[in-house]
Amino acid sequence: MQGAWACGWLALGAALTACTSDRADLVIVNGGEAALLDPQLGSGMAEARIGLALHAGLTRLDPRTLAPLPDLAESWTSDAAGRLWSFRLRPRLTWSDGSPLSAADLLASWDRLRDPATASPWRDWLAGAAWSAAPDPEGREVITVRFDAARPAFAEMTAMPQLAPIHSTLRAAAPGTLPQPLISSGPFALERRVVRDRTRVRRNASYWNAARVSLQSLDFLALDSQFTGLNLFLAGEADFLPSVPALAAPRLRAEYASSFRPSPQFAALFLRLNVRQPALASRALRRALAMSVDRAALSAALGGLRAPADAFVPPVLAGWQGARVAVAQFALEAARAELATARAEWMAAGLDPERTLASLELLAPASELNRDLASVLREQWRAHLGIEVRLRLLEGREARAAESAGDFQISRSSWVGDYLDPDTFLSLFRSGAPGNRTGWSDAAYDQLLREAGDAPDGARRMELLAAAEALLLEAAVVIPLLVDANQELVAADLVGFHPNPRGHVDWSALARRP
Amino acid sequence: MAARLLRRLAALLATVLIVHALAFLLIRATRGGPFDDERPLPPEVRAALEARYGLDQPLAVQYLRALSGLVSGDFGPSLRYRDVQVRTVLADALPVSLAIGAGALIFALLTGTAAGLLAAQRGGNLERAVLGLATVLLATPSFVLAGAAVLLFSFQLGWLPPAGRGSAAHAILPCLCLGLPLAAQIARLAHGAARGVLASAAVRAAQARGLSNGHVLRHHVLRPALVPVAAYLGPAAAAALTGSLVIEQVFALPGLGTHFVQAALNRDSTLALGATVTFTALLGLCTLLSDLLLARLDPRAEALS
To answer: What is the ipTM for the molecules in this complex?
Structure first.
C-alpha cells in the first residue's frame, strides 16, 4: 500500500510537469486568440499584433507619430490627390527562408487579396486600384498603383500586414489553410502556434533590417481574462497587456505611472439608431435622444479613461477639424423641444406617442462595460426626457447577428479606425454599406463621400468629409458617446514603446533596458 | 464479463452519437454565426466563406458531413481558427486538461483518503476540523478558491506563479484548486466508511490482539473505506475534467474546457462538436473505469450490470 502511495505522488509530479513551456524574451498578452495567421484573412487586433511581427510592408509606421517610414520600399511618391503612388523596392530582399522577394510577389499577393475567392474582409482596400511593376534606370523595382479615387492614407496602409507581400506557398494554399512552415518577410518568423495558448515568433535573420531587431523571441499569449493577464504582469510573467481591468485602472495609474499611460485611441463607442423602426423613423426623436446624453457624466461613470465624444470621428487626426454640430452636444432644452416635435408628429399621424416611445429598446453585447454604459444611458434618458428604454443584453455574436439583421432599435456599437483617415469611419454609413445597419440612406451623404474621393487636394477632401460627418450627425443615426482609450500596460524596462492612437506597436524596435 | 463490457461500450457509443446530434442541433439553433464580427463582411465574401465551409448546404447535408467527420475522427477545420484542424486543437488541448485533471484527482485521492481515515480514527477536534473544512471547501466556488489561492500563494507569500505555464510550479495552484473540492468529498466518503469499519467486530478483535493503530488502519480499514471512494472516482474524474473549465480560465491554461466554452461562444460548430464528443467519450470511459475498479475492490458490487 505504501508503494501505491508513492506511485500516486510520483504520478502527481509527472502530471505537474506535463504542462510546461519556456519563456520568450517578451511575453505579450494578446487578448483573445488570433483567429487566422493569414494576414489577408485575419481581422482583429490580436491578428494585427502578430501580423506586424511576421510581415513587413512596403512601409512601417513610426510609433511616435504614425507617419510611414521606409521598410521593404526604400522610398515612395504620390500625386497631390493621393491617387497615383510609386514605391521603390530595396534591392536583395529575402523571405525568412532566404529565398528572394520581388515586386512580383507583392503584386501576386494583392491579386490574391482582391480575388473574391480569397474571401478577405480587406478586399475593399484595393478597390478601384490598378498596379504594375517595372525596373527604374538604376535597376530597382518600382511598383506603381493608381486608384480611381483619392487614397491619401495608402502609404500608411501599406504598413499593415493585410497589404504585405505573402509567400508563394501561402498564395498557393487554399484560403484558410496555413502552409508549414509559414514563410514571411517581417522582423520575426513563426516558430510555433498552439491554439488558445501562445504564438511564438523568433527573430528573422533574413529580414532586411535584422540588425535593429533586439529581441530574440516573442510570445503572444491567447488570454481572454484581463485579470489573469494583470496577475501575470504583476508577477513578472508578462511584459505587455493591451488593456487592463477597469477596476484596476485607478490604482495602476497611481502606482505604475511609467508603465500605464492611457491615451486616446482612434476608436469610437457610439449608438446606431435603426430608422426602419417606427419610433426611430422620427428624426426629431433621434435628435432628442442624442442631445439628452450627458457624455461627460457617462465618461466619469465609466472611470474616466474614455473621453466624451462630441463627433463621430475621434479627434486624434492631425489636420482634421471634423464636424461640430449641436446635435452631438448635451443640450437638455433643445432635446426636450425635439421630443415635443416628435410627439406632435406622431399625434398628427394618428399614433399614440406614449405607446410609440414605450417600444424603445437598447441592444448591447453582454459585458461589464456595456452593462454599466447602458445603465447610465437609460438613467439619463429617464431623467432628462422621461423615456423608459428597455435593455436587451445578448451574447456577443448573437448581438452582432441581431444588429446585422436590423433586429434592433438602438444598438451599442464600436469601431476602430483601420487607418488614420476619417473615411474609415464615415464610409461605414454609405447607403447600403454592410456596416451601415441602420437603414439610413442619404444621397447627399453618398455624394459628399464621392466628391471627397475625387477631391483635387487633401484640404478640400477634408472639408468634404467634415461636411459628410455633419450631415450624419444632424440626421442622428449615430450618437457618438466616447472616444475609446488605449490602456496598454508595459514593463518598465522595455524601451521603444510609444502609446499612439492606433495602438500600433513596432515589435522590431523594442528592447530591454540593460 | 466480456459481454457486459461490450454492452457498456456500445451504450457509450450510442451516448456519443446522441450527444453529437443534440450538440449539432443546438449550435445550429443558436442565433449568430462564426463570421458575425464587428467588421462587416461584404455579402460576396460572406457567401464565399459559407460555401467554402459548407454552411450554405441544407441542414441534413451538414449533419451527415459532421457525422462522417465523427466516424473518421476528422472534424475538419475550426470555423473560428480556420487555418487549424479541429483534431490539432484537441490534440494540443487534451494533454493539458488530462494533466491538470489527473494531478487534481491524484492529489484529491491522496489527501482526501488520508484526511478521512485519520479523522475517523482520531475523532475529537481533528475529526471536527476535517469535516468542517471539507464542508467549507465543497461550498466554495472554484473561481473564489482560485482567486484566494492566487492572492495568498502568489502575491502574499510569493511562492508560486499566478498563472501560465513554464515549470512544474505553474501547475501546482491549478491542481490544488481543482483538487481541493474533490479531496473534501473523498475525505467525507472515506471518513464515513472508515467510521463504520472501525466500529466493526473484526477491527475490535484486531485491536484486542494488540495490533497497532497504523497496522489496523492499513490492513483492516483502508480497503473497505476505499469502496465508496472508488464509486465516486467516475464522477470525480468527470468533475476534474469539466471543472477545469474555470480553472483553465483563471490560470491561463490552454485545455479542453476553454475550447469547449469559446467554441460555443464563437459559433465554431466543428470545434464545439469535437470538444463535446471528446468530453462525452472521456466521461463515459472514466465512469466505466471507476465501475471496473469498484468491482475489483468489492466483488459484491455488480458494477458492470
So the answer is: 0.78
